[in-house]
Amino acid sequence: MMVVLANHPNWQVYPEEIAKRKGVNRKTIDKYFKIFEEAGYLRKIRKKPPGNGGSHIFRFFSDEKISDSQFDIMKQRLNLSIKKASMNYNSDIPKSEMSESEMSESEMSDFGH
Prior knowledge:
Layout lengths: L1 H4 L9 H8 L3 H14 L2 E6 L8 E6 L6 H24 L13 H5 L4
Antiparallel strand pairs: 1-2
């Protein structure tokens, strides 16, 4: 758990990376993650960010037990971050290549819709 808590607060937790850092196998990390989850110090959620990619597991750790209301706030912030990231991604795509469903009303008015 110290490996996780010692990193930047926005660091995304990758079990493979922790296993490599600590010189243990992935099963060992999974075993400890399960213990932390059952004790309430780890919560996780699987989300499929917008786009063609697959789903991701987002893990939230704390040095105190994570209550349901705290987890709800964490999920809201995650959803907001994903939405912002998606908006930044779409802003890199030329509008002429975007479908109407991907454009805002103001963007569509630029094209006479």
